[in-house]
Design brief:
alpha/beta, globular, disordered N terminus, two-stranded antiparallel sheet, five-stranded parallel beta sheet, about 500 residues, single chain, 15 helices, 9 strands
Length: about 500
């Protein structure tokens, strides 16, 4: 494939050499591992077309002119790129008046005139809301009481009913005011159209970098991993294994969406085009690429004491916000994923590790992780142990390789056609087909072939770590222990997804 690092166990594969640019003058959002985005947000021209389906160039041949204040330049290939005016006031001189619903965009200010947006909110309290013994009713949504307990109190008060998302945006966006606002000015709020939801150390950084070079796709925040849906909404920090301080309120959804409104506006408005037969004017979509979202429900026990399994997970919150969300699950041979996580987390000081790392030290940690999990199974279910914060050993990340547990929770809440299951090894082996299939799943035009070849030929490694954090080999007895441990759980995954490729050729 031209990608010499295709079988590297210690790195996320296929990382691109650059990522798209950001609009200036907006505060970035921190992330665990990603660097600021610094590359162009365009797809290069190609004269080669995919015969089966139109590419970006052929499908979107012309756009309405989206123009800012005088002196602001626009480009006409492949999309009219709307550049942010220096005075931060967005004006779309030619936005047709018939689009009454989005007229507020003409005078929307990304920041001027708004002095403070509270960063945090209290945790929700079902006793203060319209709730019965099982459900709460908020803004046209019916939610489990348990969802309210572990989310910021403004979460569903700021969200409109699903049928009130702006029809002019393909991405789920809504027109709203800040809660308790004293101004009549509206702002644009958006949630992700799709998630690259997992799994950690399974090629998500590469996939994020590729998709972000599509002119219709952008991040919902300033970095790959905003961690709102797995950590910040529960009062935790960006970093893994930080116990939430129940006296410290969670990050407010109002604050999280409002601080990113200019970024979303910049990326979505430049995809403006009037298309006959549809109300959609802005065809761009946004993504959240936090791979911990699929497994990181840690410290759920603080919100639901006395239970052996979590009554709700991140999946429930995402489905409650937008049940039409699309989700991409990237999965890797679980034995290799564990090794990659061990090396990476040690290098990044996510957990205290004994250096230098050695095959013997890794073996001891693997034995301990398997022992802890099997001990948990004596009193709990597999699902309960997979989610149990007490059994989680960060060093090996064993619990995050129990794919079937997490996948099953999402399959209960989302239709199968909104879920895309990607095997990292297949993605590496046939990058062009894989990226085309993902574009089809997301309902966006495919990249031109020449652009796909550029992705294929890149040989840079994302999240590179020093050689002193890489094991020269793994002891055979370590592999044997893990293969025995994962054997029944891979069978569960195969039964769930209906394809024996999910055995990864491991004994079964």
């Amino acid at each position: 494939t031209g990608r010499t690092r295709a079988h590297s166990d210690e790195q996320d594969p296929l990382a691109p050499s650059s990522t798209p640019s950001e609009p200036p003058s907006v505060e970035p959002t921190p992330s665990d591992s990603e660097e600021p985005d610094t590359s162009p947000d365009t797809v290069e021209e190609s004269t080669t077309e995919t015969p089966e389906q139109e590419t970006v160039e052929t499908q979107v041949s012309s756009l309405g002119t989206v123009q800012g204040r005088k002196g602001v330049k626009t480009s006409d290939f492949p999309y009219n790129t709307f550049l942010p005016p220096t005075n931060k006031t967005w004006v779309f001189d030619n936005l047709p008046d018939k689009y009454e619903n989005v007229k507020f965009l003409k005078n929307m200010s990304p920041g001027r005139g708004i002095t403070a947006v509270p960063e945090r909110a209290e945790f929700g309290d079902p006793n203060k809301m319209d709730c019965d013994e099982t459900y709460c009713h908020v803004n046209g949504r019916t939610l489990k009481r348990e969802i309210i307990k572990e989310n910021p109190s403004d979460m569903f008060r700021i969200l409109p009913p699903e049928n009130e998302f702006l029809k002019e945006f393909k991405n789920p966006c809504w027109k709203g005011k800040l809660l308790n606002s004293t101004t009549d000015r509206y702002s644009l709020f958006c949630s992700p159209y799709f998630f690259i939801i997992g799994f950690t150390k399974s090629g998500t950084s590469d996939l994020y970098g590729i998709l972000k070079e599509h002119p219709l796709i952008s991040s919902t925040a300033f970095k790959k991993e905003p961690h709102f849906y797995d950590r910040l909404r529960r009062g935790r920090s960006y970093r893994m294994n930080r116990r939430p301080d129940m006296t410290r309120p969670p990050i407010s959804l109002t604050y999280f969406t409002f601080r990113n409104r200019a970024f979303n506006l910049y990326n979505l408005v430049k995809t403006y085009k009037e298309v006959p037969g549809t109300d959609v004017l802005f065809h761009g979509i946004t993504m959240d690429a936090t791979p911990a979202t699929v497994w990181d429900n840690e410290y759920w026990e603080l919100f639901h004491p006395g239970l052996k399994e979590p009554p709700v997970t991140n999946a429930d919150t995402i489905a409650s916000i937008n049940p039409k969300t699309k989700l991409i699950f990237s999965m890797r041979d679980p034995v290799k994923r564990m090794l990659s996580a061990y090396q990476f987390f040690c290098a990044k000081n996510v957990y205290p590790c004994s250096r230098p790392i050695t095959p013997k030290k890794y073996h001891v940690l693997v034995v301990d992780a398997v022992r802890k999990f099997n001990s948990c199974l004596k009193k709990n279910t597999v699902r309960g142990c997979a989610y149990s914060t007490k059994t989680h050993q960060l060093a090996t990340h064993l619990y995050a390789s129990l794919y079937h547990v997490y996948v099953a929770d999402y399959m209960k809440l989302f239709p199968r056609d909104q879920l895309y299951f990607l095997q990292m090894e297949e993605h590496i082996g046939d990058l062009i087909t894989s990226v085309n299939n993902i574009c089809d799943f997301l309902d966006v035009p495919r990249f031109p072939r020449e652009k796909l070849r550029q992705f294929q030929e890149r040989d840079e490694v994302k999240n590179q770590i020093s050689s002193r954090f890489k094991l020269p080999y793994v002891l055979p007895e370590t592999t044997k222990i893990l293969e025995k441990f994962f054997k029944p759980y891979l069978r569960e995954l195969v039964d769930l997804l209906g394809d024996e490729k999910w055995y990864w050729k491991r004994p079964h």
